[in-house]
Amino acid sequence: MRLEPHRLVFIDETGTTTKMTRLRGRCLKGQRLRSKAPFGHWKTQTFIAGLRCHGLTAPFVIDTPMNRRIFETYVETQLAPTLAKGDVVILDNLAAHKSPAAEAAIRARGAWLLFLL
Length: 117
Fold this sequence. Notes:
By secondary structure, the chain is of the alpha/beta class. It has helices at 68-79, 100-108; strands spanning 8-17, 44-52, 55-62, 88-91, 112-115.
């Protein structure tokens, strides 16, 4: 791989949620702390993409936390079409990543999987 770093594809995701509100704060002694917090429906947004040595590939944003079904959809519709024979897809050990359907879609393109320890 040292001779062909363009074949490496690192997959990772990140997310944000609207309920990331401070639970504690500071105020003068003897005074009540008043603060605003959003009220209503909490939402989570997840961003997943592949990182190659020349930039991002197959970006995907969803309005829900990552699970196995969503990861399989991402691999089949976004990631697999960008893979070439001999590419190495490197993933962390998230349970959603250990999907037989996603593995089959990646291997069908002639790519390899490598899980981080």
